[in-house]
């Protein structure tokens, strides 16, 4: 393997550990282990530092315009190819929970690609995205601008559950 291959593998591992430890911290908090939760949060942040440094080493952080183009590519691949394939597999195995999770993610990824497209159009014109607020559905990952719907159009969670992103 090359150093670039090593860095790419390390980035994937560090990124996964970041998310995994963040989730483990939430579980420890829920079980009343606040200091274990703090340890996991610190480790999660440490893994994020490693991932960030590796992403720069891999020269994957470019101009916002280029980053948006790559983000659209990735999200589009996920909702047009990756998740539809995963949904078929889950349905073949009669795994309804997996099929639902994959379907929610697929639909949210399409929204993400659309939002990135809107952002790209603004940035290509030398402007920032013209929105007042950004909200995130805590169940499916849907992202909406300015105001929340009564219910999430992807997963049906009540709009009051959406989290405003600062």
From TrEMBL:
InterPro entries: Ferritin-like, Ferritin-like_diiron, Ferritin-like_SF, Rbr2/Nigerythrin, Rr_diiron-bd_dom, RUBY_RBDX
Keyword terms of this UniProt record: Electron transport, Transport
Domain Ferritin-like diiron span(s) in chain numbering: 1-127
Family annotation (SUPFAM superfamilies): Ferritin-like, Rubredoxin-like
Pfam families per record: Rubrerythrin, RUBY_RBDX
Keyword Membrane among record annotations: no
Record's keyword annotation contains Electron transport: yes
PROSITE patterns: FERRITIN_LIKE
GO-annotated molecular function: metal ion binding; oxidoreductase activity
The name this protein goes by in its record: Rubrerythrin
């Amino acid at each position: 393997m090359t150093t670039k291959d090593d860095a790419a593998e390390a980035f994937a591992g560090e990124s996964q550990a970041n998310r995994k430890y963040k989730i483990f911290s939430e579980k420890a908090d829920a079980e009343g282990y606040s200091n274990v939760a703090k340890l996991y949060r610190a480790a999660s942040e440490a893994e994020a530092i490693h991932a960030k440094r590796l992403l720069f080493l891999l020269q994957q952080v470019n101009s916002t315009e280029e980053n948006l183009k790559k983000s659209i590519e990735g999200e589009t691949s996920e909702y047009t190819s990756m998740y539809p394939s995963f949904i078929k597999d889950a349905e073949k195995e009669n795994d309804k929970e997996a099929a639902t999770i994959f379907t929610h993610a697929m639909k949210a990824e399409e929204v993400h690609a659309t939002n990135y497209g809107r952002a790209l159009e603004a940035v290509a014109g030398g402007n920032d995205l013209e929105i007042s607020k950004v909200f995130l559905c805590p169940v499916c990952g849907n992202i909406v601008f300015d105001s929340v719907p009564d219910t999430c159009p992807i997963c049906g969670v009540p709009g009051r559950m959406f989290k405003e992103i600062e």
